[in-house]
Amino acid sequence: MEDSTREKVVRIYARVVAAGVFLLLIAGAAVTSTESGLAVPDWPLSYGRLMPPMVGGIFYEHGHRIVAAAVSTLVGIQVAVLLLFEKRKGVKLLGLIAFGAILAQAVLGGMTVIFLLPPAVSSAHAGLAEVVFALTAAIALLTSRWYQSLSGKESGLGGAGVLRIRRLLVIATAAVYVQILVGAVMRHTGAGLAIPDFPLSFGRLLPLAEAFRTRGVPIHFAHRFGALAVAVLILMAARALFSLRRVDRRFAFLASLWTALLVAQVALGGLSVWTKKAPTITVAHLAVGALCWVAGVLAVVSVSRLTHHETSAPSPSSPNLVPRVATA
Prior knowledge:
Layout: H1 3-33, H2 57-85, H3 89-114, H4 119-142, H5 145-149, H6 158-188, H7 217-242, H8 249-274, H9 279-312
């Protein structure tokens, strides 16, 4: 098989896997949003069978298990594809890590059923799902033609300038992930409507002190306050990313997409309160949050490509660049 064909196989398959993991996230969100987490009380079988009647909450819970099995298989096959066709050891390692992570994800999923949805385990299950999505999306980016085309391109900002942009991207992306974890804890502790109005909190900008004594209010308010902080960081990071549009116009597209996802996510957060956590809205809220997280991850990885080039380039004072003076 020619190298170009191998690269195409790896590239297309990586995209399929990342899309599959995203669908798995949506399936998991549907389970939580419809309160179907214990619709099937046993694991790994469902009512002692491989295929129970797909009715009521069983449809969501067992459907999630079917999707999880299929996607886990895709991630496992990706390891073989990368080992056979990918030359870079780092990309192969990411594939192995992704496979290990999704297996751990399956174990955590089983524990949520066996131990009757303990919030800590359920939240860890949600957090690890986001890590798997980021890993598979990163593999898709690293195997893309666009990522390869960034080699040799200079930002015009110098190595220090690109490093500053990358640092801001890392901070914003890490903040998004923390916000997702806080949201997972809020969701799995039943605090999604602990504050019943939005954008105000009990009709005020800040709840009264006694309100924080009510179960669920502290974590719900932390999620709202975190959303404000994350929004500011994403806007700052997106603006910095947009400044790289002269290097490649797709940096501008990524910055615009990240901003649009932020706006959609804030709107969905409000709608989830106004609709009393309508399943369709809460599923969309989780899905867009995952895309916000992965958009940041992809931004960090792509800008790091520029960083590597510019910081590793020899400086003008390098001995290799000083012309030799001919001697008699």
